[in-house]
């Protein structure tokens, strides 16, 4: 009788075979390699990319929602329609989708033309012959990361190939474009799709989701910032005398020089920890008891999402400068409340955004300001918790 794990593995293989046959007709050798692989990392990577491709395509093909919204909005309007303009904002892969959609507007995508024509219904759109898909007024994007693994690039997300998602921004694609990117993101697995030097781009302190939002108002970080390792040793061996303990110390020393991570460690609790499996005491060939030991470097801290609010205000200022109208937030709206120590920094950040958009030199955060932001408000997105979750803090 097959174990539950074996049954799950066989189901996963069957699912991947069906999926690969569906999307890899043009590359049968690659499909066969993927579905016949016994490497769990390949299985997970392929599954992730297949989901990502399907997810992005679903979002971008869902033009019907635009038609429905347009139809509802026009119920309040009796006159002819003089112009149609889009304000587009997106974060991460949503930023890639926003750039792709802006291209569809710019290139007068026939599917979009038809959806808009249906949406206008009996109303007369005066600019239909010149701008059948309207125009993009504002394109505001947060830390664009397409990270598209396609069959053409061998499912490698580290290349500039974005498959069918078109993120290039030709001249005239939008009246105003502004991009905010993350200073404290490790980029190998999260490669940035920059728009410099063609358009204004501002790099801000923060990890990827500090820039675009996504963290909880308050979080407790207990993060393995070096890779957890384990080994079996004689019971008499001190945990801190093992090679894995020394390796974690060496890696911590290296991390303290990494520009994306090192600033987050200052004035925060960082320790090389060891763990021992108290239920695992095998004997070696000499009948000596042994123990299983693990070691890694751990970052401990409490952290809020308040810096994301500052970044939001900077993007909102750019949007308002372009003509986008926002309702005034309520005094009780927690999404706009800042701790007093960030109030002046928010004003400085807004001015930095304005300077970049005007092609002027900005006044950067000084060392003291950066230290405050990065040690108290910037999350650490680079860690090994998914690998080391079996070890207890």
TrEMBL record:
Keywords: Coiled coil. The keyword Coiled coil applies. Residues 53-80 form a coiled coil. Residues 129-220 form the T6SS Phospholipase effector Tle1-like catalytic domain. The keyword Coiled coil applies. InterPro entries: T6SS_TssF (IPR010272), Tle1-like_cat (IPR018712). This is Type VI secretion system (T6SS) ImpG/VasA family protein. It comes from Xenorhabdus ehlersii.
């Amino acid at each position: 009788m097959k174990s539950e794990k074996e049954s799950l593995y066989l189901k996963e293989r069957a699912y991947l075979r069906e999926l690969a046959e569906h999307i890899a007709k043009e590359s049968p050798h690659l499909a066969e390699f993927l579905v016949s692989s016994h490497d769990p990392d390949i299985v997970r990577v392929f599954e992730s990319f297949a989901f990502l491709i399907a997810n992005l395509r679903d979002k971008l093909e869902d033009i019907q929602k635009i038609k429905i919204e347009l139809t509802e909005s026009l119920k309040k309007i009796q006159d002819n329609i003089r112009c149609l303009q889009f304000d587009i904002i997106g974060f991460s892969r949503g930023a890639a989708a926003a750039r792709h959609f802006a291209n569809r507007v710019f290139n007068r995508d026939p599917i979009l033309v038809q959806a808009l024509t249906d949406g206008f219904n009996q109303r007369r759109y005066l600019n239909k012959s010149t701008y059948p898909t309207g125009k993009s007024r504002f394109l505001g994007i947060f830390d664009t990361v397409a990270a598209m693994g396609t069959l053409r690039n061998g499912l490698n997300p580290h290349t500039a190939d974005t498959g069918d998602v078109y993120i290039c921004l030709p001249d005239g694609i939008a009246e105003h474009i502004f991009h905010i990117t993350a200073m404290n993101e490790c980029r190998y697995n999260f490669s940035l799709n920059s728009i410099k030097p063609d358009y204004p781009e501002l790099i801000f302190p923060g990890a990827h989701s500090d820039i675009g939002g996504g963290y909880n108002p308050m979080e407790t970080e207990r993060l393995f910032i070096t890779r957890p390792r384990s080994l079996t040793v004689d019971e008499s061996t001190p945990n801190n005398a093992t090679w894995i303990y020394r390796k974690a110390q060496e890696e911590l020393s290296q991390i303290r020089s990494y520009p994306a991570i090192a600033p987050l460690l200052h004035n925060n609790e960082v320790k090389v920890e060891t763990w021992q499996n108290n239920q695992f005491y095998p004997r070696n060939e000499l009948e000596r008891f042994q123990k299983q030991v693990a070691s890694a470097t751990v970052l401990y801290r409490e952290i809020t999402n308040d810096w994301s609010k500052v970044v939001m205000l900077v993007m909102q200022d750019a949007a308002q400068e372009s003509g986008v109208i926002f309702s005034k937030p309520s005094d009780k709206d927690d999404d706009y409340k800042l701790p007093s120590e960030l109030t002046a920094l928010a004003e400085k950040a807004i001015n930095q955004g304005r300077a970049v958009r005007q092609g002027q030199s900005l006044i950067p955060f000084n060392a003291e300001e950066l230290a405050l932001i990065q040690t108290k408000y910037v999350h650490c997105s680079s860690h090994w918790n998914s690998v080391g979750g079996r070890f207890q803090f």
